[in-house]
Amino acid sequence: MAAEPGQPGTVLITGAGRGLGRELARQYARAGWRVIACGRAFPADGFEERVEFQPLDVTDPASIRSLAAQLADRPLDVLVNNAAVRSRAPGLVALEPEAFLDVISANTLAPILMAKALLPNLRLAAGPLIANIGSRAGSMAEGLLDDDDDDYAYRCSKAALNMATVQLARDLKPAGITVLALHPGWVKTDMGGPEAALPAEDSARGLCEIIHCASVEDSGSFLTFDGKRVGW
């Protein structure tokens, strides 16, 4: 089980400069956690107390290695792979190979590289956990039921992240590391847009609760922010 709020746990959150990542950092800090907030640039309005900013470009392997070197020998209880992007021009007609691969790099490869780079830090914690912020849009079973999203790259990247989560869960379970795929809902952020139904505060609160309650027996699960299981 990941460290409970108020206990001396450390969480690292990617894409923490805005949106859901920013709200996750805020809620963890208010609960007494030590927060390592990672992003390309420090937010103009700053962070709360107990939040340490570390520069990170998740699409640059050298930046990930530099972060790992900066954090060497520091225990890490929770890694939240939250940073993600969408296509600039979704749809089949507008699809561009380079733009497609940029989305895959940020949404699929980066979480794997983060897990690899920070594995020594996770091993230093008791009951560590990796939370990959995925999306129901990447679900083969549910992604097309009530969703007209035509962003090929985003959908494919999140489907691939699901497989990465399952593979990581299998590989890391012997070390006692829990790995989850979490769907945050349609969140009111720059990415989600103004028509989204769910405030970032509510999504982050639900995600934190799932993370706090999870154990290694739950590893490899795909869950919504309110605890429902998502079909692969």
What does this entry look like structurally?
The chain has a seven-stranded parallel β-sheet, with helices on both faces. The protein is globular. Helix 1 (19-30) packs across helix 6 (200-213), helix 2 packs parallel to helix 3 (97-117) and helix 3 runs parallel beside helix 5. Strand 5 (129-133), helix 5 (152-172) and strand 6 (178-183) form a beta-alpha-beta unit. Helices cover 36% and strands 14% of the residues. The model has no long low-confidence stretch (mean pLDDT 92). With 232 residues, it is α/β, with parallel strands linked by helices. It contains six helices and seven strands; from the N terminus they run βαββαβααβαβαβ. The protein has helices at residues 19-30, 61-70, 97-117, 119-123, 152-172, 200-213; strands at 10-13, 34-39, 51-55, 78-81, 129-133, 178-183, 222-224.
Task: Give the key terms.
single chain; 232 residues; alpha/beta; 36% helix
Range of strand content: 5-15%
Task: Give the spatial strand order of the biggest sheet.
Answer: 3-2-1-4-5-6-7
Nearest-angstrom radius of gyration?
16 Å
The sequence of SSEs as H and E is EHEEHEHHEHEHE
| Shape category | globular
Mean pLDDT across residues: 92
- Helix percent band: 25-40%
Could you give a short account of the major beta sheet? 7 strands, parallel
Terminal-residue CA separation: 24 Å
